[in-house]
Amino acid sequence: MEMRRDVFQAIADPTRRKIIHLLAQQSLNLNAVAENFDISRPAVSKHIRILTECGLVVIKQKGRERYCEAHLQQLKEVSAWAEQYRIFWTRKLDALEDFLAQERKPSRKK
User: Fold this and answer.
1) Residue 15 CB-density burial (10 A; 0-12 exposed, 13-18 middle, 19+ buried)
2) In whole angstroms, what is the distance from residue 44 CA to residue 16 CA?
3) Phi-psi region of 63 (alpha: psi -120 to 50; beta: other; left: phi over 0)
4) What is the pTM of this model?
5) Helix or strand holding residue 60 (H, E)
6) Which element (helix H / strand E) includes 95?
7) Using one digit for the tens of pLDDT, what is the confidence trace for 1-18?
8) Residue 94 to residue 105: CA distance in whole angstroms
9) Separation CA 85–CA 75 (nearest Å)
10) Residue 16: is it exposed, middle or buried by C-beta count within 10 angstroms (0-12/13-18/19+)?
11) How far apart are CA 69 and CA 41, in angstroms?
12) pLDDT in tens, 47-100
């Protein structure tokens, strides 16, 4: 039984983020992906497998080669999750800015 991995788990690793970036540019076979990293081919394969399990990469057979393609729709989930916090922090920082502006105003009391 295949464990369905979480997109957040997949993008937590910097190597996997680099693989996604690489594959977003073009479809590549495993060897071409591995050439971009200073890690072993089996390590690259493991990263590709994790990305495949969470749906960020799709592997397609073309002749005798297997090509990896980015499937970035899953990143919408990440974007939506991050957006709620962007809105939260924007409000907090706006409130802080207003507070600091009030603190900087000269006092009229003498």
Assistant:
1) middle
2) 9
3) left
4) 0.72
5) strand 57-62
6) helix 75-104
7) 445 678 888 999 999 999
8) 17
9) 16
10) buried
11) 17
12) 999 999 999 999 999 899 999 999 988 888 888 888 989 988 999 999 999 999
Residue 15 CA to residue 18 CA, distance in Å, equals: 5
- Strand 28-29 relative to strand 57-62, pairing: unpaired
At 108, list the tokens.
């009229």
Closest CA to 32 of 43, 21, 44, 46: 44
Average of pLDDT values for 18-31? 95
Taking the C-alpha atoms of residue 53 and residue 3, their distance in angstroms, rounded to an integer, is 7
- Angle, helices 41-53/14-25, rounded to nearest 10 degrees: 80
For the chain, what is the total number of helices (H) and then of strands (E)?
A: 5, 3
Q: Which residues pair with 68 in a beta bridge?
A: 28, 59
